[in-house]
Fold this sequence. Notes:
The chain is an alpha/beta fold. It is 40% helix and 14% strand.
Amino acid sequence: MYRPTQFCSFFLGGFECSTHRRADGRRLDLLVATGHDRWPAQDFAALRRHGIFSVRDGFRWHLIERTPGRYDWSSVLAQVRAAREQDMQVIWDLCHYGWPDDLDIWRPAFVERFARFSAAAARLLAEEGVASPWFAPINEISYWAWAGGDQARFNPLARGRGFELKHQLVRASIAAIEAIRAVSPQARFVQVDPAIHVRAQSDRPGPQREAEHYRLAQYEAWDMLAGRVWPGLGGRPDYLDVIGINYYSDNQWYLGGDTIEVGHPDYRPFAGILAEIHRRYGRPILIAETGAEGDLRGDWLRYVSEQAEQAMLRGVAVEGICLYPVLDYPGWENERHCPTGLYGFPDSEGMRPLHAGLADELRLQQARFASACAADAATLQS
């Protein structure tokens, strides 16, 4: 069985930090909406009580660089310092769909400014005593290219420009990695994108080819970063450090049709998806986002954990599972209460209600993985 080595805990917590503009022009700020910006110390302490010592969190670029080249770190310092004081390992998202208002995402200046901002963020962490920082430079390049570049669901509200946006985000990610490495050579990176599976509802060759083409498109951004395709973008294999996979219950569907549900004969086991990605790139994998709503939270964590263990027994380098979002949050489009978290919304003192079902399942899965790793270690020593 593969034994993970990259993170301080196998189960991580992810704080939703999206900062995009919706189609109506309103900018979201999920760190504010969930209260994590006000209560980072309480939030980290709460996760530590559940054996979670690694998290995903975020810098909000649009707040930090309101004026070009001038950085105001007041919006992130409380998170940085609370993490350091509580010895919480953090993967810092640097661009989670949002950027400063004065920038045109389509122009070269976007790449240049993002690289400078990323270097400045690395310097800040070094000054704050973070010796080995982790970053997710651009969150979900593929999804952002589709939602923002093809479907106009959120910024930059374009249609028919998804491939162009994907190129631009890959350029920005590469430039950020180089800028960060110049400041912190020991920095590590997670390249996060959704893992999907798409099937045709027809046995005809045309729909079958179309569905497979759609499915394989999930690899385009990773292939560009690695220099496998479009080498003029500057990709190299070392830009794929750890591959972050986002996976939810609606990540499998019929081409042009409905979601394929777990348990359906056409549903592909998640272990197989993990194995395919590992074979393709040979890199460690973090399940960087996964979760479900309501009372399905525990059941979904059980399924993902069991599938991850099956993959690890086959030698797939799964480094961790991130509960995401680890806090309940208001929906992007309608601000409805999305009950997805280990914890809910805070009260006036930063205290949050615990979802007992998810907490119980998390404890069971932590014990299972600890037992499996211990049994594997004993086998190796015998």
